[in-house]
């Protein structure tokens, strides 16, 4: 078993620990604050998901930006930065720009890195740190931590305890042959699950060099459906929009839509698919081509 696969399997336990940690942490955004969430790569996609969740919970305006594209002049009450390594250049630079003007909080896996001094407050999720270059459990654990901090006020979204139960099934059940044998995958989401769709596509590209795309679900019929057909998959995170199943069937594609499962647990299946495809191609999912654990610019 690859290290990535082993780390994927620990996510239910990590999420439960994250929920407990969130209850004891006092640096999370408060209801009514104007908040921005930031990160790079996978962390940015988790930021997108959290921003949508927080607004759905009615807790305040929440934006998400890649750290390199953050509008520093825009006023916020608090900025949340997600950085597994705690060393990413763009994140550290942004936190430096915000020092003394905006309250900042960082989520990291490593308490021995520069982010500990760069942010006003830091939540250390070291129990979810990873040896693999490809992020899996840290990303979902960071989102579980932030999601738990919202309480039970997100309509239609399960508690982290319930999501962890769904995750236990997601780490063990067989993946469908139609998904394993496809040549192309399009991931779809609505609201907070759009961030998950983006992350699923990235995981497939990083680990397996796979041909994947990701879109808001209602945009799928505005062009992206043209790529779907026999031997190709449309994968929906969360509630399936009316009529979409018929549209995928009409063009000969294979639809994946686990509406009974928490979407974050469903992301685990996409992570496992990425590892399976990488191994089938003879790739090392722990050390993907052209990537490193952290991007540190000179």
Structure description:
With 298 residues, this protein is α/β, with parallel strands linked by helices. The chain has helices at residues 3-8, 11-23, 42-56, 89-98, 115-118, 137-148, 160-170, 177-180, 193-208, 244-250, 263-280; strands at residues 35-39, 62-66, 78-82, 103-108, 121-124, 184-189, 212-216, 232-237, 254-257. It is 39% helix and 15% strand. The longest helix is centred in the last third of the chain and has 18 residues, at 263-280. It is globular, with a radius of gyration of 18 Å. The protein starts with a helix and ends in an 18-residue tail after the last helix.
Question: Could you outline the blueprint of secondary structure elements for this entry?
Answer:
Blueprint: H1 3-8, H2 11-23, E1 35-39, H3 42-56, E2 62-66, E3 78-82, H4 89-98, E4 103-108, H5 115-118, E5 121-124, H6 137-148, H7 160-170, H8 177-180, E6 184-189, H9 193-208, E7 212-216, E8 232-237, H10 244-250, E9 254-257, H11 263-280
Helix pairs in contact: 2-6, 2-7, 3-6, 3-9, 7-11, 9-11
């Amino acid at each position: 078993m690859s290290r990535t696969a082993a780390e994927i399997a620990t996510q239910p336990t990590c999420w439960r620990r994250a929920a407990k940690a969130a209850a004891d942490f006092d640096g999370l955004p408060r209801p009514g604050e104007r908040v921005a969430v930031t990160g790079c790569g996978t962390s940015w996609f988790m930021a997108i998901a959290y921003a949508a969740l927080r607004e759905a919970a009615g807790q305040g305006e929440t934006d998400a930006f890649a750290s390199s594209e953050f509008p520093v002049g825009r006023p916020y009450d608090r900025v949340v930065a997600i950085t597994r390594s705690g060393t990413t250049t763009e994140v550290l630079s942004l936190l430096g720009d915000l020092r003394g003007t905006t309250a900042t909080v960082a989520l990291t896996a490593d308490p021995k890195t520069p982010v500990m001094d760069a942010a006003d407050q830091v939540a250390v999720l070291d129990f979810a740190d990873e040896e693999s270059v490809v992020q899996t459990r840290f990303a979902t654990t960071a989102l579980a931590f932030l999601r738990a901090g919202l309480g039970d006020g997100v309509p239609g979204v399960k508690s982290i305890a319930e999501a962890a139960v769904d995750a236990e099934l997601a780490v063990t059940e067989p993946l469908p042959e139609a998904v394993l044998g496809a040549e192309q995958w399009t991931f779809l989401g609505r609201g907070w699950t759009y961030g998950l769709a983006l992350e699923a596509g990235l995981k497939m590209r990083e680990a397996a060099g796979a041909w994947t795309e990701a879109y808001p679900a209602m945009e799928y019929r505005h062009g992206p459906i043209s790529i779907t057909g026999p031997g190709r998959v449309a994968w929906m995170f969360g509630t399936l929009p009316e009529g979409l199943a018929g549209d995928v069937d009409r063009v000969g594609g294979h639809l994946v839509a686990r509406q009974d499962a928490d979407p974050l647990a469903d992301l685990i299946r996409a992570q496992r698919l990425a590892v399976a495809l990488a191994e089938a191609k003879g790739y090392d999912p722990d050390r993907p081509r052209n990537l490193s654990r952290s991007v540190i610019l000179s």
